[in-house]
Amino acid sequence: MPPHGAQPAPAVLESMVVAEAGALMMSLPWFALAPRGQDDTVLVLPGFGASDRSTRPLRAMLRAMGHRPHGWGVGTNVGPAEHVLRGLLRRFDKLVASGDPIHLVGWSLGGIYARFLAHHRPDAIHQVVTLGSPVRSRPDGSNVAGLFRRQARRWGFGDLRTEVDMDRLPVPSASIYTRTDGVVAWRDCLQVQAPRAQNIEVVASHIGLGVNPAAIYAVLDRLASPSRWAPFDPPRLLAPWFPDLDRVHDIQEPSSCSS
User: What are the phi and psi torsion angles at 167 (to 5°)?
Assistant: First the structure.
């Protein structure tokens, strides 16, 4: 039997997204406790099979809290197709043309793209925040792994995660994950914690991470102080949103990857 967390949670838990969207509206007053941004540029990347429409609530919250969020503008994320990667690089280059480093926020496969960019352009990136992204995925670690592999073969691309070390980044990073993820195995979302790398657990569905109050609060907190990185430490009133924040996991070295 696989160890706990080696496979996604039951897919039925993804129905939590309805309650999460409602909880976001009810939780808006609590976001007064979140640190405000300093008008920094944030590029938000959607997950596999999703588009900028899926990240609208998250971007709206970022904008309301003093950031300048941008969608990726490439349409549906069909996997590492040539037009997807070219479009992503064009968008990235346009946003960094001013010379100021930007933040990358990636949801699921979007987080893999973000980590890939961090290896190639660390000078242009403040930090990377991922939401339910399989940093160290295995063949059975995702309910959409087979579909992703077929798409990658169709477009003639190998797995991005075999080209660079997706675990350890040259920029600060936070991996937001949930044990009730019905798409990606939560253990595959854990990066090795380091002086500027942290895993943050929330209670959420995978498809609800973009509207989950705890996940959004964690993103806001991480983006607010890139020049003086410190471990995530929520206000005492919001501590129940973040179970086992200080948990130390036994993280194994990554094996062969998939989505």
Answer: -80, -55
Concatenating the DSSP letter of every residue in 199-212 gives: EEEE---STTTTT-
Q: Compute the distance between CA of residue 167 and CA of residue 189 in angstroms, rounded to an integer.
A: 9
**Residue 50 resides in a domain:** yes
Helix axes 213-224, 56-64, angle to 10 degrees: 50
Q: Residue 252 domain-assigned?
A: no
CA distance 190 to 245: 13
Where does the chain show beta strands of DSSP type E?
Answer: 41-45, 68-70, 102-107, 125-131, 173-178, 197-202
pLDDT in tens, 137-179: 654 445 455 555 555 555 444 555 555 567 789 999 999 999 9
CATH code for position 60: 3.40.50.1820
The number of folded domains in the chain is: 1
Look at residue 45 and tell me if it is in a domain.
Answer: yes
Please give the DSSP secondary-structure letter assigned to residue 74: S
- Cα(139)–Cα(154) distance, integer angstroms: 18
- Tell me, yes or no, whether 246 lies in a domain: no
Mean pLDDT across the stretch 221-237?
84
Domain of 149 in residue numbering reads as: 11-227+237-241
Q: Indicate the pTM of the whole model.
A: 0.86
- 207's tokens: 């498809």
Number of helices (H) and strands (E), helices first, in the chain?
Answer: 6, 6
